[in-house]
Design brief:
Radius of gyration: 22 Å
Number of strands: 0
Low-confidence stretches: 1-12
Number of helices: 21
Strand content: under 5%
Shape: globular
Mean pLDDT: 89
Distance between the termini: 44 Å
């Protein structure tokens, strides 16, 4: 190996500070940005990376893992004897079947493709199951393989340009559903294959609503890849808005909603950057779109609606690391009005982050219990929830430590 090759952060004996610096630079993140996310000085971070300060305490390590989007805590600590997934799970039991369907390259078929209307009805039931089932990954993982295979066949057997565009629209939405399933699974390349196929199929469909959904998910994939990908997230997001917003005067509710969802996503990325004005500005524009929707409307993919705007406000405040504001927004927002179980659980996790930021760990743990009650498979793969639980499992307060340990067992962080 060349002497100037980048060392492997899992190789020994790399010190914690060196490992931290490698992971930070691989993310394309400056010391100023990372230190700011932690509320620390740049000189503090430089001293940690240089080994002039001792390894930080657990709460700081977990904050670093969150900021760097470290998927396995061992990648940061170097302790290969204990692997704790932060933003990734151990792999869902139904993942291999989904992977096989995505990776398949069938060129022949021995039976006629299902009608588009039939596939659309199955897809609608799959979305409904995702929103209503507490074990939504289990349910969706069981439905996806056949949906993927059958929509691929419908595209291949389409006889007219109109039929082909309709089949491509269904296929893009099936890949959108698949992206929810493969997120936080131990196969990042699979996520990108699914996202890219969904975008290509959406463009082939020429359906504005479907194009908006694919752009929304692609922007999320870029943003969640770390600060080095925020520009790509903005590029996809803003291009989609530029395409959709001229259509709004005559748009139906679905096109209106996906435009609002994209506008909020632009605010989400701005909040990750620490741009307070832009973040709340995008939220305000999304809220104005939500008000135009019927009171009982709920977008089947993005959950965009009037009901979800309070949850979105919590997310903006939390991402801006505004503890007091995030708690105020958490108190104003009501999770029970969100009909989707996984989205309701996600909102509870965001509320827990707000309480943690504000120095209310007991309330944070109680809120995570509510998230687990709403959708156990949402909290099980959420790195933010894991960080709070692991941190409080080290608490000096016995009752809090016990409660965190019990929750750690529930979500699979600790053995019973």
């Amino acid at each position: 190996m060349s002497s100037d090759a980048t060392p492997d952060p899992n190789a020994e004996p790399i010190a914690f500070g060196q490992r931290l610096q490698l992971l930070r630079t691989r993310r394309g993140m400056t010391r100023e940005v990372l230190a700011g996310l932690l509320g620390k000085s740049t000189s503090w971070l430089k001293q940690v990376e240089g080994g002039r300060l001792q390894t930080p305490k657990l709460d700081v390590i977990l904050a670093l893992a969150e900021a760097l989007r470290v998927r396995d805590l061992a990648d940061l600590t170097g302790d290969q004897t204990r692997h704790i997934g932060m933003f990734i799970g151990p792999g869902h039991p139904k993942l291999p079947a989904v992977v096989a369907a995505v990776n398949a390259f069938p060129l022949t078929a021995n039976h006629e493709a299902a009608p588009i209307g039939h596939l659309q009805a199955r897809l609608a039931r799959a979305w409904q199951a995702r929103h209503s089932a507490p074990n939504h990954r289990e349910v969706v993982g069981g439905l996806l393989p056949d949906l993927i295979r059958d929509t691929q066949q419908a595209v291949r057997q389409a006889e007219t340009a109109l039929d082909r565009r309709a089949a491509q629209a269904v296929m893009s939405e099936v890949y959108s559903l698949a992206q929810f399933f493969v997120a936080y699974q131990p196969d990042p390349s699979l996520l990108w294959r699914v996202a890219e196929r969904g975008m290509v199929a959406a463009q082939e469909s020429e359906d504005p609503h479907i194009i908006g959904i694919a752009a929304w998910l692609t922007a999320q994939a870029h943003r969640d890849s770390g600060p080095g990908h925020y520009d790509a997230a903005d590029a996809v997001n803003l291009e989609a808005l530029h395409f959709l917003e001229p259509l709004l005067p005559d748009a139906n509710d679905d096109v209106l909603a996906i435009t609002g969802a994209l506008r909020f996503e632009a605010g989400y990325t701005a909040a990750r950057r620490g741009d307070t004005g832009a973040a709340w500005g995008h939220w305000d524009q999304a809220d104005r779109i939500a008000i135009r929707l019927p009171a009982d409307y709920y977008h089947p993919v993005t959950s965009f609606s009037r009901a979800v705007m309070g949850a979105h406000a919590v997310t903006v405040a939390v991402e801006l690391h505004a503890g007091g504001e995030s708690v105020r927004q958490a108190a104003r927002s009501e999770a029970s009005v969100i009909p989707s179980r996984p989205r309701r659980a996600r909102h509870r996790i965001e509320q827990a982050r707000a309480y943690q930021l504000d120095g209310q760990p007991d309330v944070a743990l109680a809120t995570l219990d509510q998230a687990h009650e709403a959708a156990p498979e949402t909290i099980r793969w959420n790195g933010y929830a894991k960080r709070i639980i692991l941190e409080e499992a080290e608490s000096t307060v016995p009752a809090r430590r016990r409660r965190a340990a019990e929750l750690a067992v529930k979500v699979g962080l600790l053995a019973a």
